[in-house]
Amino acid sequence: MNAPEKLDESAVNRQKADLGGENIRKSNFSAPSRVLIVFLVWTFGIDLMLSLLLPNPQILSWPFAFLHVAILMIALAPVYYLSLYLPLRYYVRTSRHATQTLQETLDKVQKIVDSAFDGIIVINEQGHIEAFNAAAEKIFGQPAAAVLGKNISTLMPEPYRSQHDAFLARYASTGKTKIIGEGRELKALRNGTEVFPIELHVTETDTQSGRRFVGTIRDISRRKRDEAELKLANEKLEERVASRTAELEQVNAALNKEIAERKRIEARLHEFATTDALTGALNRREFDRLLINEYEKLKRHGTPLSIILFDVDRFKQVNDRYGHLVGDKVLVELAQLLKTTLRRSDIFARWGGEEFVILAHGNAQQIYCLAEKIRTLIAAHVFPEVGYLTCSFGVAEFSDKAAMMNTIGTADKLLYAAKANGRNRTEVESDESCLLAS
Ligand SMILES: Nc1nc2c(ncn2[C@@H]2O[C@H](COP(=O)(O)OP(=O)(O)OP(=O)(O)O)[C@@H](O)[C@H]2O)c(=O)[nH]1
């Protein structure tokens, strides 16, 4: 298709007229009419001069008339040349040049418009298509010749088609529109059948022959397809992530359960390894380990540390009278009583049989007081199965100079001394007294 043909003819003519007029106005000879006026003035001027110079009767004779015309033509020849031929030749050349310039400009504009990536469609106020560039031909699958002059709504599917004329009329009457100057996504019609998505930007411009709307159209089918594919891929990915997350959460929950179970087993194992199975008090091995730690601290920092060894009085009788199981229950209850009484920093363990040990921070006097407090507490406690019971206590203070085992031995001796001295009493190395003692 010849490019300039695609532009609306009236618009071309208007532009031609504008461009031509502009060039002529710029020249010294603005119009043929002005040349004609100059020619007439010269003709009548010379004719008048000849009439005045020559006697009147001779004017009527044919030879004279011939001479008159000949003189007139000879006299006016330079005037013809200067005032008629040259201006006309200049006018024609200028007009031809202006037309050529206009044509070149139009060719250039058309090429630019046709080379645009986006489709460009110009419509008038009635919605009739006045320009349709090459990209628009490609996008809509129709040659410009097939759509020029037709209503733009022929390129739209329903419901846009039915709404478009009303939209234009409303805009003409109210001046209100949402689309001018804004970009929006719409549906268009390719080859009159295929509905496809477009992105449309509309601008408007006022021309001598009325308002024009310029639509810039981009086929976004591919983008939409890509977006849809991307959305689908995203959805699938999200689904996979969700199911994988669920799987991981399950695995995680199972792992957490396993870890919790392991921790529970470890704690249980630790408990088995460190506590006495019957009473729940620390066992002898754990006590020995903690004693070594505390003894090291004592040696480093000099903080006073003492030991209480105590033993249930006449426990054999309990076993003999109530049975071994009741004896066990009594030991469990006794340990429970001690646990609720002692501080967390005190280390309480079963030493063996019905004998218990307490490692406590404090000097002999302070821990003697503690032993007495425990003694009176036990003595006042009613054991459901057996009633009242008493215990005997031996208290000794560790020193950084004495060997650790010696102090334990001392506490043991003092415990036996308490037994020997009548039971239900506390013996300590030095002559200690305690306000708590009863
Ligand atoms: N039920 C029970 N009895 C125990 C346990 N360990 C030791 N005994 C008993 O505790 C009793 C300790 O008796 P003895 O050493 O004669 O001392 P006792 O009868 O308490 O008399 P004194 O200590 O001199 O007051 C024994 O009969 C042991 O069998 C135990 O774990 N459970």
TrEMBL record:
TM spans (from-to): 35-54, 60-86
Coiled coil start-end: 218-268
Catalytic activity: 2 GTP = 3',3'-c-di-GMP + 2 diphosphate
One MF term in the entry's GO annotations: diguanylate cyclase activity
Keywords, alphabetical: Coiled coil, Membrane, Nucleotidyltransferase, Transferase, Transmembrane, Transmembrane helix
Domain PAS: 105-175
CDD domains, per database record: GGDEF, PAS
Enzyme Commission code(s) on record: 2.7.7.65
NCBIfam families noted in UniProt: GGDEF, sensory_box
Protein name (database record): diguanylate cyclase
Species, as recorded: Keguizhuia sedimenti
